[in-house]
Amino acid sequence: MDLKHVCQFLADAARAEKNCVLVTVVAVEGSSMRNPGTIMGVAEDGTYAGSLSGGCIENAVVAEAREVFTSGDARIVRFGAGSPYLDIKLPCGGGLDLHFQPLEGAELSEQCLSSIAERAPFSIALGPDGARHVGEWLPPTFDANVGMAAFGHWPEPLLQIIGHGAGVEALAVLGRTHGCSTRILTPDERIVSGLREKGIEALLLERTSQTDLLKSDPWTATIFLFHDHDWEIELMERALTQPHFYLGAMGGRKAHAFRSEALAARGVSDESLAMIRAPIGLFHSSRDPQTLALSTLGEVIRTYEATRFEGDLG
After folding, report:
1. 210-215 contacts: CB < 8 A, separation 24 or more?
2. Region for residue 149 given its phi and psi (left: phi exceeds 0; alpha: psi -120 to 50; beta: otherwise)
3. Is the pTM higher than 0.85?
4. Structural domains in the chain plus CATH codes
5. Are 286 and 292 a contacting pair, CB within 8 Å?
6. Residue 88 pLDDT more than 90?
7. What confidence tens digit (pLDDT) does each residue in 95-107 have?
């Protein structure tokens, strides 16, 4: 979830006329905290954004980036197992191959930020001619012989939370803190006002028939948090027809049986009903809003990480 933060850092630094280096994990040997494609941005003053380990190698990465500023040439450096940095070891015992690319201006970072804002898949391609933005998702590739690589990035998860009560607020704040986009629909004016003050998009839901307020894409998790389950049916019927990678609803098994029966009576198929996660969360019977939020977000992120979006979109 560091991608937007790193791109914004690089764009801001470039606009301040600071030289920058884009650091990319291009290969991993053994165990690692980061996947290929993870990026970090380093400015010439030593400031940086992003993380490539648990703090084990960041200072060495900054030092290497400063050498790249001097030479002006891209390079690939191994950290951890098999690295020339004998005094720097990863606790996991693995190794990371990092690509260091000096950047000219803010074009790359601003193109990436534009794709992120539009919730559009994109890729960063690395090669002899530098780093460039590609307006589509590309599978991860790395050819060490020619120094070329490409890594695709999907939009971050969007939490579309529909409901009322303290659980809505808790999940919205926790999701935003984690780095998810958040969008709230609630009949509670107090929640709308409070979340808007925190900079979270919140819309007032006045009728169950306002299904046009539902907006989603393949990277959306739609979550229903109603204690009064009569609020759900018409809205959930619409949500099931929209793209999403997760759709879940609060309530126990009896509540879900009632929900399923009501939806079936409206013509919702068994296949669609099977999409609904209920009860929601990694652990059930959560008794307080914060625990419910943590349990739900954990299940959402686990599902997001396990989803092969390229297969679903192909």
Report:
1. 210/185, 210/235, 211/235, 211/237, 211/238, 213/185, 214/160, 214/162, 214/185, 214/238, 214/239, 214/242, 215/160, 215/183
2. beta
3. yes
4. 3-153 (no CATH), 158-313 (3.40.50.720)
5. yes
6. no
7. 788 999 999 999 9
